[in-house]
Write the structure tokens for this entry.
Amino acid sequence: MNKNIDTRYITAIIFSFVLVVAVFIFNSKVLNRLSTQSPQDVQQTEENLLNGVAPAASPVNISDSDLSDNYISNAVNASGSYSIWQSMPISVYISENPYKRVVESAFNAYNTSFNGIINFSFVDNPNNAQVKVTFPSQIENTNSDQFISGLTNNFNSGKYIQSSTIQLLTQKNGVNLSSTSVYNTALHEIGHALGINGHSQNRDDVMFAQTLSNRVSSFTARDIATIKIMYSNDDNLINQHTASAGTEKLKEAIRYTREVPNKTAGWINLGNVYYDLKMLPEALEAYKKALQIDPSDSNIYASMGTCYFSSGKYTTAAEFFGYAIERTAEPVEIENYEYMKALSTLSAKKYDDAFVQYSSLINKYPNKKEYLINYLYLCAYLKKPEGKEKLQAFLQANPDANNDKNIQQYKAYYKL
């Protein structure tokens, strides 16, 4: 797959006047180094992958009572927290590309290898997808032989992943990558989309930091045990294996920045680990190093915005979320950054500006309760009459929300 990955997410615990919301944005990059192709059956393997034929894998049967060999301590955040999908199947949209069937094979490999624990289904409309796969021309600004061939962003609310985007490269310097390389990168990135926020230290595992390009990857017992533990949703079981997660992830992150100091991936990963460990000044310094390397990366600005927010520097946080908005065209990222900018502005007590920003959010996303609550607070505080109409429209579209305590508060205020 790739030579070290950065694992980045934005985590903000948000305290507002009438709402407490946890927002996580997880972003993971994989660096890919091409190696020599194996000589004999490469052509047949390539043809099979391009035709969507999943590679035959040796069955790996792991009982729930034998999960001791795993890398769960690398899969969780440095704080020991993690996020997973709440229900199956997970809907997937893959944009049109000659490698589309290759990527479908990678998703199907999860379907056949995890006995129903993981289940993906494919949809034709990106608006109906929880996971979206695209094929950009580049992911990072670099000419290095070690390059980022995959990038995953997870957008989470609390313990559960709400949506995910995966970007996969299919070319380097205008030359097509092998189907095997794209398949292996997809297999790895799907692991991140499932919530694995780090890497295995064993190069045989799918989630090793460097993907293969000369032979098809397949799941090991350690891969399967790790995902089984995560999706057991058993905090006690997970805690048994994650006591030293923070220390180990910090050592790994520092070691990588020393080995490859000119990659944003390493510095972003280091910033994430520092953030998890509540070492906010150190996190900001790491993100600044990443920004010096690639000032066009929206996620770096958003990560810094989250640090400033968590430090109580709300005006600065709003500025950095604004910079992030300017540098992305991804709808999911834009929505999250707009929300965090509005929340930062509200937290800075700039109520008129916050009202404008929340009004925009409500017009774009009228059924998002977390946006509506703060919007209604601002309407009440600034004595804006629009709140009643927006609340009525929301309740008409979402009748189950009538029982929500925050909604009831504003129903009483507006005498509804």
Summary: The longest strand covers residues 20-32. The domain at 5-263 is CATH 3.40.390.10 (Collagenase (Catalytic Domain)).
